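Project outcomes to date are best conveyed with an example. Our students and postdoctoral researchers have been running inverse folding experiments weekly, and each run begins with a structure described purely in tokens. The record below, which covers 123 residues, was selected by the lab manager from last quarter's runs and is presented without edits.
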């Protein structure tokens, strides 16, 4: 397809916009897959006293704009209140401290690595 020199800038901008849309759609797809995998990892690796906390992990769409897409992995109500206490430890009734059960930080690190690896592979 031949482009006249006067229309070159317009054509370049059109192609860049199309590429931006394609990249945005791929980022949304990959981030949803990574969020789903992270929620499953947290379901598997979370403390399981009754099983409710571990089963409460889910994901959803966070802030999404033209140039930014966010997925959020979180524990549902009422178990979300336990995340910080379990991850960091807390003071107990007898005055001592409970041991931290680190399970969120490794899942977050794995999600960041997986997202970067998948985006590099697909783009």
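After processing, the design step wrote out the following sequence:
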């Amino acid at each position: 397809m031949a482009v006249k020199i006067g229309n070159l800038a317009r054509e370049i901008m059109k192609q860049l916009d199309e590429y931006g849309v394609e990249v945005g759609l791929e980022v949304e797809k990959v981030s949803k897959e990574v969020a789903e995998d992270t929620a499953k990892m947290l379901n598997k690796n979370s403390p399981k006293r009754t099983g409710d906390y571990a089963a409460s992990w889910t994901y959803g769409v966070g802030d999404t704009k033209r140039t930014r897409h966010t997925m959020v992995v979180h524990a549902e109500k009422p178990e979300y209140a336990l995340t910080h206490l379990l991850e960091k430890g807390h003071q107990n009734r007898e005055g001592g401290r409970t041991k931290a059960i680190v399970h969120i930080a490794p899942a977050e690190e794995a999600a960041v690595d997986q997202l970067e690896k998948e985006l590099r592979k697909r783009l």
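The helical segments are 8-45, 52-55, 82-88, 104-122. The two ends are 25 Å apart (CA to CA). The training component of this project remains on track.
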